[in-house]
Design a protein that fits this description.
mainly beta; about 120 residues; globular; four-stranded antiparallel sheet; seven-stranded mixed sheet; 11 strands
Length: about 120
Amino acid sequence: QVHLTESGGGLVQAGGSLSLSCAASGRTLSSYIMAWFRQAPGKERELVADISGSGGSSRYADSVKGRFTISRDNAKNTVYLQMNSLKPADTAVYYCAARPGLLYEYDYWGQGTQVTVSS
């Protein structure tokens, strides 16, 4: 059984930074695509960023490009999301997720961590 555990959320003022972590347990996910999603109240869940198993390829939502950076440490079975220049619009519950490859659904999900950006 795979468990994904997010940490690092909290309250920050606009313009500030937060760093999220997602630690996996139960199996090694070094070959999995890892991603961060977010869901704001009353809105659909959206993909924020994803990263390939090797860490050599990543993609970002247009709304966070240039501000957020996804990375991973396969030795620690952990994926990170560095969030800079935060905006109130970034307020949401952030979830990490994992899937075996591009043709697969996201099989594993964390419980989420709240990020709140005050104006």
